[in-house]
Amino acid sequence: MHLLSSEKDFERALEKGARAERLTRDEAFALAAHITPDRLHRLGRAALANRRLRYGGKATFVFNLQINPANICGARCTFCNYAASRNDPHAYVMSEADILAQVDRLQPTEVHIVGGLNQVWPYPRNLALVQQLRHRYPGLHIKAFTAVEIAYFAKTSGQSEAWILEALKTAGVDALPGGGAEIFSERLWRQHWKNKIGPQEWVRIHQMAHEVGLPTNATMLFGFGDTWTERVEHLLTLRRAQDESGGFICFIPLAFQPGEGKFITHGPTALETLAVTAIARLALDNIAHIKSYWPMSGVETAAAGLSWGADDMDGTISEERIAHLAGAVTPKGLARERMAETIRMAGFKPQERDGQHRATMNAAAESDRS
Ligand code: V47
Ligand code: SF4
Fold first, then answer.
1. Nearest bound ligand to the CA of residue 273
2. Nearest atom in ligand 1 to 219's CA
3. Which residues of the chain carry a pLDDT beneath 50?
4. Which of 193, 254, 296 to mutate to test the pocket of ligand 2 (most atoms within 8 A of CB)?
5. What is the pLDDT of residue 4?
6. Ligand 1 center to residue 38 CA distance, Å?
7. Scanning 1, 57, 65, 311, which has the fewest C-beta atoms within 10 Å of its C-beta?
8. What pLDDT is stored for residue 263 in this prediction?
């Protein structure tokens, strides 16, 4: 019944959200009630005011590389087109030499390492990769392994999750990415990703990472049969977890890519993606950054997301795989210049950043030109 709220509740939620104030639960739900074209624009205006208070006209991106060492995974999440069985034609396994050669060639500011749940790249091999990367590139930001992988590493190595997190941090991991959260709904968990950890475990592992001093991101997969109530509950669960442990840096809404032969033929529309972005910005008063993730939403919608509350466009991302194996028609990587130009065309000042959202040397040059 949360979504049956009045115009007055909606207006009050917008006013408080625009000032980056904390919304009550009912106000957060009021934002998602009856998303009409008129309300979508009002959500956008409030979220734009909120992100301007925080970041002015600046929008950031990072020069990064996604490393997916192998796509062999037995979890069989229904929405995933990336995973393969060993004998599938699209199964692949990278070697350490392949990975290091890619990093050597691109010299990224950040690497984002995630793979499937498999014994081809088990925990000790992933740990050794992090050690090698840290040794070779002392300044590289290593964002690696989802909570799902941490749980799997613990299970398969007989160690506790806290032990794994400490060991990865010592080896050189700087932060955990936000994947594997899907949407915090027991109903959808049972239906779509029952072979891996569910909502409560995901939150618990992120809070454990915060305790050992590893900051993390958080995602939300939407547009695959989820409801607005489930989306707002997801945001409020994250807000509560952040109040307790404080280590979430960035929230990333992930627009579902239907892929081929999946259970649903369409992902969310661009307008729905903008509404989710704006509601996230208004409801998550305690999470600093909202990412507009172009491989899933499309470059144009991601750029528009900067006016609906997002302040970051993620990265240039060489060779994105997860969205593209699910049929995304967006480019597989964007050059630095194209990223800066996209942000400028959307009306914002591009600023290149490092893995901790600090401006890099290139940033000044980019901002001066706009
Ligand atoms: O966990 C899988 C999602 C996630 C599909 O932390 C799909 O900075 C849409 O988490 N359609 C991985 N989404 C990507 C991810 C991420 C991306 C960018 C930045 C960060 C960060 C994290 O992709 C998975 C899953 O939720 N996913 N299949 C699909 N068909
Ligand atoms: Fe495996 Fe992750 Fe794909 Fe699920 S989403 S099948 S865990 S790779």
1. 1
2. 10
3. 1, 363-365, 367-370
4. 193
5. 54
6. 30
7. 1
8. 81
Nearest ligand to the CA atom of 71:
2
Q: Is 310 in the pocket of ligand 1 (CB under 6 A)?
A: no
Rounded distance between C-alpha atoms, residue 44 and residue 27, angstroms: 16
Residue ranges of domains in the chain: 57-369
- Which class is domain 57-369? alpha beta
Q: 264-304: per-residue pLDDT in tens?
A: 888 999 999 999 999 999 999 999 999 999 999 999 999 99
Measured in residues, the chain has a length of 370
Name 269's Cβ contacts closer than 8 Å, sequence gap at least 6. none
Q: How far is the CA of 125 from the centre of ligand 2 (A)?
A: 19
Query: What pLDDT sits at residue 324?
Result: 62
Q: How far apart are CA 62 and CA 249, in angstroms?
A: 15
**CA-nearest residue, atom 7 of ligand 2:** 75
Separation of CA 59 and ligand 2 centre (Å): 30
Distance 72 CA to ligand 2 centre (A): 9
Q: With helix as H, strand as E and coil as C, how does the chain read? A: CCCCCCHHHHHHHHHHHHCCCCCCHHHHHHHCCCCCHHHHHHHHHHHHHHHHHHHCCEEEEECEEEECCECECCCCCCCCCCCECCCCCCCCECCHHHHHHHHHHHCCCEEEECCCCCCCCCHHHHHHHHHHHHHHCCCCEEEECCHHHHHHHHHHHCCCHHHHHHHHHHHCCCEECCCCCCCCCHHHHHHHCCCCCCHHHHHHHHHHHHHCCCCEEEEEEECCCCCHHHHHHHHHHHHHHHHHHCCEEEEEEEECCCCCCCCCCCCCCHHHHHHHHHHHHHHCCCCCEEECCHHHHCHHHHHHHHHHCCCEEEECCECCCHHHHCCCCCCCCCCHHHHHHHHHHCCCEEEEECCCCCECHHHHHHHHHC
The residue whose CA is least distant from atom 21 of ligand 1 is 177
